[in-house]
C-alpha cells in the first residue's frame, strides 16, 4: 500500500519540501495580494493529475494572503503531497467572508480527499482578532457573531497525515476533523490567546482511528475536544495550556443519542488550564461514552484537574430527568500535580446508573499555591480504586 509506505517515510522525516510551487500558478506571496485563486489552481492541477508531480508546494520566505479555499477530492493521485514552508494568512476582515454552511465557515477545507500528506515548516495565521472583537460571548449585541472561520477542516477524508506545521490565532477552532477516518496529527504547534473565544486546538466529530501526538496547544478553549460519534482516538505526548483541557463532550444536547468509545489520553501535561481530564454531557441525552482512559497525566496549577459533569450547560437550574448519557469503563491512572481550586476531583453524575465502572489508580493531587487543601466531590459514581488516591476517593 503506497499510502502506508509514505506514511512511514513521513513520520521519520522532519518535513517534506518538494512539489510544484504555487508561484507557477500566479501566486505573488507579498502578504498583500490575494493569492486564493493561485492556490486553488495549484490544488486542482495536482488533484486531477494534470501536474506532473502531483503535489503542491508553498515556498518559504513568502507570505500568502488567502480567503476561503475548498480543496476538494477525490483526487487521481494518492497520496497527494501538500508542503507548506511559507506563511499563509487568512483574510482578516470579517465582512469579506461568505456566510457558512452547516455551522462552519471554512478557511482551508479538505473535502473527500483520500491519501493526503500535509507537512512543512510553515506558519498558518488565522488573523482572528477581527472576529474575536465581534464575538457574542464578549461583545453581546445585535451585530455580534457566534460563527467564525475554522482554520483547517478535514471533511469526509481518509488516510491523512498532518505534520510539523504551526498554527496561530484562528478565528474559531484551529483544526476540525469531521466524518473522517485514519487521520494522524503529529508535531503541530497551535497558539492563540487565552481570552480568544472558541479557539479549540483540535475538534473531532463523527470520525474514527484518529491520533494526535507530540504536539503543543495554547488556546482559548479546549486543547482537544471530542464530539459525538468518535471511535478509537488517541491523544499522547501533548502539552496543553493555557486552554480548557482535553474534553470528551459536550454530548447529548437536546436529548440526542451519543456513541463515543475507545478514547486514550496519555502522557499529557496540563499547565494553567481551566480543566484537565474532562467528560461533559447534557441532561436528557441518551447513548454511551465508554472505554475512556486517562494515563500518566501531570497537572500544574489546573483549576479542575479531574471532571465528570453530567449537568453541563444547565447547572444550577437543571430540569429533572431520568435520561442521561451512560458513562462507563473510565480509567484514571498515574495522575499527579496541583489544583488551584479546593475540589480537585469533581465527578458529578445525574443518577444511580449514569456512571459505572469508573476506576482510579495512583492519583496524587495537592493544592496549588494559595489553596489550603484539596478534596473530592462525587455523586452517583460506581467503581473501584487501587493504590494511593489523594485527595481520598469518593467513588462508591
Automatic annotation (TrEMBL):
| Signal peptide bounds | 1-19
Q: Using the UniProt record, give the first listed, main subcellular location.
A: secreted
Taxonomic classification: Eukaryota, Viridiplantae, Streptophyta, Embryophyta, Tracheophyta
How is this protein named in the record? Answer: Polygalacturonase
Q: Which organism is it from?
A: Brassica napus
A Pfam family cross-referenced in the UniProt record is Glyco_hydro_28
Q: Which InterPro entries match?
A: Glyco_hydro_28, PbH1, Pectin_lyas_fold, Pectin_lyase_fold/virulence
Give the SMART domains listed for this entry. Answer: PbH1
Q: Where in the cell is it found?
A: Secreted, Cell wall
Per the record, the similarity remark reads:
Belongs to the glycosyl hydrolase 28 family.
What keywords tag this UniProt record?
A: Cell wall, Cell wall biogenesis/degradation, Glycosidase, Hydrolase, Secreted, Signal
Q: Does the keyword Hydrolase apply?
A: yes
Amino acid at each position: 500500500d503506497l499510502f502506508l509506505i509514505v506514511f512511514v517515510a513521513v513520520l521519520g522525516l522532519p518535513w517534506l519540501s518538494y512539489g510544484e510551487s504555487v508561484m507557477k500558478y500566479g501566486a505573488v506571496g507579498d502578504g498583500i495580494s490575494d493569492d486564493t485563486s493561485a492556490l486553488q489552481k495549484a490544488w486542482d492541477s495536482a488533484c486531477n493529475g494534470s501536474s506532473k508531480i502531483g503535489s503542491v508546494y508553498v515556498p518559504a520566505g513568502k507570505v500568502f494572503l488567502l480567503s476561503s479555499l475548498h480543496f476538494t477530492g477525490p483526487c487521481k493521485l494518492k497520496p497527494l503531497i501538500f508542503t507548506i514552508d511559507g506563511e499563509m494568512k487568512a483574510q482578516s476582515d470579517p465582512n469579506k467572508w461568505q456566510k457558512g454552511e452547516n455551522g462552519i465557515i471554512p478557511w482551508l477545507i479538505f473535502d473527500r480527499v483520500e491519501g493526503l500528506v500535509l507537512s512543512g515548516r510553515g506558519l498558518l495565521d488565522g488573523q482572528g482578532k477581527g472576529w474575536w472583537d465581534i464575538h457574542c460571548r464578549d461583545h453581546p449585541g445585535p451585530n455580534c457573531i457566534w460563527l467564525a472561520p475554522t482554520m483547517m477542516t478535514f471533511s469526509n477524508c481518509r488516510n491523512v497525515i498532518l505534520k510539523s506545521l504551526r498554527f496561530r490565532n484562528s478565528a474559531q477552532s484551529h483544526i476540525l476533523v469531521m466524518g473522517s477516518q485514519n487521520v494522524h496529527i503529529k508535531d503541530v504547534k497551535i497558539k492563540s490567546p487565552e481570552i480568544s473565544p472558541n479557539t479549540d486546538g483540535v475538534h473531532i466529530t463523527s470520525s474514527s482511528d484518529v491520533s494526535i501526538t507530540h504536539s503543543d496547544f495554547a488556546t482559548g478553549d479546549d486543547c482537544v475536544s471530542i464530539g459525538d460519534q468518535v471511535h478509537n482516538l488517541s491523544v499522547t505526548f501533548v502539552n496543553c495550556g493555557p486552554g480548557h483541557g482535553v474534553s470528551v463532550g459536550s454530548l447529548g444536547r437536546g436529548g440526542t443519542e451519543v456513541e463515543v468509545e475507545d478514547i486514550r489520553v496519555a502522557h499529557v501535561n496540563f499547565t494553567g488550564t481551566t480543566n484537565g481530564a474532562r467528560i461533559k454531557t447534557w441532561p436528557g441525552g441518551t447513548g454511551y461514552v465508554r472505554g475512556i482512559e486517562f494515563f500518566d497525566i501531570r497537572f500544574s496549577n489546573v483549576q479542575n484537574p479531574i471532571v465528570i459533569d453530567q449537568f453541563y450547560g444547565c447547572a444550577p437550574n437543571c430540569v429533572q430527568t431520568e435520561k442521561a448519557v451512560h458513562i462507563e469503563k473510565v480509567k484514571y491512572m498515574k495522575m499527579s500535580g496541583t489544583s488551584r481550586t479546593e475540589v480537585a476531583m469533581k465527578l458529578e453524575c445525574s443518577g444511580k446508573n449514569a456512571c459505572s465502572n469508573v476506576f482510579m489508580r495512583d492519583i496524587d493531587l495537592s493544592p496549588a499555591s494559595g489553596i489550603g487543601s484539596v478534596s473530592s466531590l462525587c455523586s452517583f459514581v460506581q467503581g473501584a480504586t487501587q493504590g494511593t488516591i489523594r485527595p481520598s476517593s469518593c467513588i462508591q
